[in-house]
Each structure stands twice: as C-alpha cells, then as structure tokens.
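Ops channel
N.P.: pipeline sanity check, posting one input/output pair.
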C-alpha cells in the first residue's frame, strides 16, 4: 500500500512538472513569435506609411539587402532566429 502511495505521489509530481515545463516552453515560443512579428512590422514601417527615405532592414532597395525580394517566410524565420 505504501509503495502505491509513493508511486502515485511521484507520478503526480512528474506529470505536474512536465505540464509546467511544456507551459513554460510554449510561453517562450509565443513571446518569441510576437517579438518577431513586431520586428517585421517595424521593418515594414517605411513602406506602410510611405516614408520618403526608406531606411529599414526590409525596405532598402539595393544589392546588399538580401531581404528586399524574398518571401515573408524567410523574413519571419530570420526575425524569429534573431529573437533567440
């Protein structure tokens, strides 16, 4: 009987710890997503509000800007990478 109670307490503690760890990592990933989306919005700020001088990391039109003619996925993954 005592062994079952100890095992049950350990199992409950293990499950609670696992759920807490998953919740923690999900929160980190969600915050990283929101920061990456905000960073992309900041990069598109010049083109959204039609500024005269475009100086952001996404809107500069020259041969050195690797993001000018790329897909949104590439820009998102690059921003997400730099969040971490």
């Amino acid at each position: 009987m005592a062994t079952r109670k100890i095992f049950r307490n350990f199992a409950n503690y293990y499950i609670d710890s696992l759920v807490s760890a998953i919740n923690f990592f999900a929160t980190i990933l969600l915050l990283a997503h929101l920061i990456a989306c905000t960073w992309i919005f900041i990069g598109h700020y010049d083109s959204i509000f039609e500024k005269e001088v475009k100086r952001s990391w996404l809107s500069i039109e020259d041969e050195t800007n690797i993001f000018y003619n790329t897909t949104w996925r590439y820009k998102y993954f690059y921003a997400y990478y730099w969040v971490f």
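N.P.: looks fine end to end. The chain is about 70% helix and 0% strand.
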